[in-house]
């Protein structure tokens, strides 16, 4: 009886699983976040790097992608800020980069108060105010 043995040794599978685990750790620790006042880029597994750009310094958000990535809805984002010579934040392979850019610009408008003002509310009576009751005369 002929038995076929795998040419892959256990060391190969150990290295493959270890490499996949490291890649997953890197992927989970590499992200771009939008807060109330800043755009934050965090990355790193063993050494951490964080970069925060205040919304009032954002000048441009450019997106670049090729034909395949455009079909898939992925792209690279470059955020340029006031007071710097180059690109401040570069994030590659972002899912739906146009939506992220729209959210950032909407948040910047909120930051500067450029949203359409809501209708002013009518003044309400304070709870502590009491209407005066007519006095009864005692005769």
What does this entry look like structurally?
The protein is of the alpha+beta class and 139 residues long. The protein has a single domain (14-112), classed as PH-domain like, CATH 2.30.29. It is built from 3 helices and 6 strands, in the order αββββαββα. The protein has helices at 10-28, 67-72, 97-112; strands spanning 31-34, 38-43, 49-54, 58-64, 74-81, 87-95.
Mean pLDDT: 77
How many helix segments? 3
Instruction: Spell out the CATH superfamily.
Output: Pleckstrin-homology domain (PH domain)/Phosphotyrosine-binding domain (PTB)
Intertermini distance: 126 Å
User: How much β-strand is present in the residues?
Assistant: 25-35%
Share in helix: 25-40%
Q: Return Rg in Å.
A: 29 Å
At the fold tier of CATH, the topology name is PH-domain like
The major beta sheet can be summarized as: 3 strands, antiparallel
Structural class: alpha+beta
Q: What is the class in the CATH system?
A: Mainly Beta
Uncertain spans: 122-135
């Amino acid at each position: 009886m002929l038995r076929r043995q795998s040419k892959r040794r256990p060391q190969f599978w150990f290295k493959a699983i270890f490499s996949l685990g490291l890649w997953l750790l890197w992927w989970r620790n590499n992200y771009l976040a939008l807060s109330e006042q800043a755009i934050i880029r965090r990355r790193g597994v063993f050494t951490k790097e964080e970069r925060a750009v205040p919304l009032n310094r954002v000048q441009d958000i450019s997106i670049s992608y090729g034909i395949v990535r455009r079909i898939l809805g992925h792209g690279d984002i470059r955020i340029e800020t006031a007071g710097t010579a180059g690109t401040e934040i570069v994030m590659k392979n972002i899912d739906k980069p146009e939506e992220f850019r729209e959210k950032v610009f909407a948040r910047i408008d909120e930051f500067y108060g450029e949203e359409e003002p809501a209708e002013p509310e009518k003044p309400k009576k304070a709870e502590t105010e009491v209407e005066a009751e007519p006095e009864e005369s005692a005769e």
